[in-house]
Amino acid sequence: MGKCKPFLEILSSSLHGDYKFPILEFLAFLFLLSSFVFTSFGFSSSEVPEEYFVYRMTSSLMGLPLFIFAMLLFKNISSGIGNDLEKGTMQTILAYPLKRRSILTAKLISAFVAATLLFLGMQFSALYILAPDMVAPHLQVVLLTYVAYMSLPLLVASITLLLTLILRKGTLAVVIGLMLFFLFSTLSSLVSLAAYAMDSLLPLQLCSLLVPNIVMDSYYSSLQPMANIFWRPSFSEALLYSGTGYCFTAVILLLSYLYFSRRLNA
Amino acid sequence: MSIVVAEGLSKSYGRILAVDELCLEVDEGSVVGLIGPNGAGKTTTIKMILGLMKPNKGHVKVFGQNPWDNPKVHSQIGVIYEKPLFPPSEKVLDYLERVCRIFDVCESRAMEVLKLVGLEEAWARTIKGLSAGMLQKFAIAHAIIHEPKFVIADEMTSNLDPKARSSLLDLVLRLNKNQKVTFLLSSHILPELSRVCNSAVIINKGRVCASGNLIELYGKFMVRTIRVSTDKPTELAEAVRKLPYMEDVSVGPQGICVRIADQGSETVYEDISRLAREIKAKILGIETGSASLEELYTTLVESGE
Fold it and tell me: DSSP string spanning A211-239?
């Protein structure tokens, strides 16, 4: 407990700072409430496979909340880490009897893990309220949909984190994060168009490495017997592409850890 | 035993060399003043000692260990930064209690240190609600809350009123005397430093100009001031001015005032007596002026420039 105590204190301090005014979370919740109404009128489950239906329902509930989730990640990096570096509060924290990697872990648990749990908690509650009979038997589909869709915000957030550590500008973190998020999102649409135009899978496959919801979308769409799908990836391919995005995220987080522990001058 | 040993420390920011081959030792139980003009490299040196900044060259050891990412070293150090840096929205007592838990000391210590620095009435305020002076006191309370063996303070009295400054310096002396706490104090307010410090490190342009015991430093580097009362002040001043080690000679209503460089200190009385005899002047009295840290600092920094 001796070594855990300072870590838990830094974690609780970070949580206190990051979630003091949960405006974004409240907005996401409001959106989910409105989605219930919208989604319940928008789907018909009679002509499509159940897996595809669950996938569509899960992904359609993620529109704005996913964007808010991304915003929450960038805000947490900005206020919890960027501002601490910019204003100098990090000097005080770094002088505490705690390893630098523990300090960053506490900050990241608050910024990433707590935000992810909040997002998933709200999404799962919404799904269960909306269609409990559909969700329970297809939990794997729901989870894979989240894995694919959350990959991009987490990847962009990890890039934002690394840039924030190097640039030491909290305010810049949100701007950079948003720009990258929109850049990747736009890129995925453009690449899809390019793939159709060139009649080549390569652009789609490359883009799926960073934005794996493309491959997941193709996979579940291909489950429809009559669907005219450009790319029909296998299940293992869909998993592989989704995993690659998380590998990129892990590598960037590792680089952030190394930079924070070995190079960062406060 | 030395608490801090820094050897050949160098740190540059781009092309600007902030600290250049700096060597420094802080002995256990001492109160050391780190003195230098703005931009001399004091804060960079302090950050390297704290392990917040990696030197480009050289190494620093605190309690015999590298301070970089070293919780053992950090648990024994208290820090007061020039601009106190705390989460603004946290409450004074809540934050200090959190710090108690981080350092694994009893939470009642939080109120204890608030009383010690005279901030007990502000316990319920948020940190952003404190005035500049109160924030400085809070920073001091924060630095000593875990009863560190070594306190590093960067301009710790900068925002305090004279009374608070005085009581803080008393606190430094008390902690040093009773609990053998070692202090490294960086400040521009030299009379205050001379009140509490027993040794000093004077740095300029990232290099150490001089370091050691204050009394030894005065003896070694100080331009000394001597007042000579005589019946022929103008003539004696004229004669004394020709001595090679004279810095300045002025004539006043009560005699002449001479400032000498260190190399003349051993023969100055003899030389003045001889010159007085030569011009047949009577010496009515000789008074030696005492050196101040400020004069020492000015002498060393100006000579360095």
Answer: -THHHHHHHHHTTSTT---S----HHHHH
What 3-state DSSP class applies to B19?
Answer: strand
As a residue count, chain A comes to: 266
A26-80 pLDDT, tens per residue?
776 676 666 655 555 445 555 678 888 888 888 888 878 888 889 889 988 988 8
Q: A97-106, B27-36, B265-274 — which is least confidently predicted?
A: B265-274
Retrieve residue A123's tokens. 């999404």
Least Cα separation, residue A84 to chain B (angstroms): 9
CB A14 within 8 A of CB A106: yes
Provide, as residue numbers in chain A, all residues whose Cβ is less than 8 Å from the Cβ of B126: none
3-state secondary structure of A4: helix
Say yes or no: B53 contacts chain A, CB-CB below 8 A. Answer: yes
> How many Å apart are CA A206 and CA A190, to the nearest integer?
13
For B185, the token pair is 């104090």
- How far, CA to CA in Å, does A264 sit from each of A94, A175, A189, B131? 10, 22, 37, 31
The answer to whether residues B73 and B67 touch, using CB atoms and an 8 Å cutoff, is yes
Taking the CA of residue A27 and the nearest CA in chain B, the distance in Å comes to: 24
Q: Which residue among B47, B50, B87 places its CB closest to the CB of A13?
A: B87
CA of B75 vs chain A CAs: smallest distance (Å): 5
Closest residue in A to B79 (Cα–Cα): A95
Of the listed ranges A74-88, A223-237, B22-36, B94-108, the least confidently predicted one is A223-237
SS3 B261: coil
ipTM summary value? 0.80
Q: Which of A61-75, A150-164, B46-60, B250-264 has the lowest mean pLDDT?
A: B250-264
Cβ-based interface (< 8 Å): residues of A facing B: 2, 5-6, 9-10, 12-13, 16-17, 20, 87-89, 91-92, 94-100, 261, 263, 265-266
Residue B115 touches chain A, beta carbons under 8 Å: no
- Assess B14–A contact: CB distance below 8 Å, yes or no: no
State how far the Cα of B45 lies from the Cα of B68, in Å rounded to an integer.
13
Q: Pick from A5, A9, A95: which is nearest to B74 by CB?
A: A95
**Bridge partner list, B10:** B57
| Mean pLDDT for chain A overall | 85
| DSSP classification of residue B258 | E
pLDDT confidence bin for A254, thresholds 50/70/90: very high
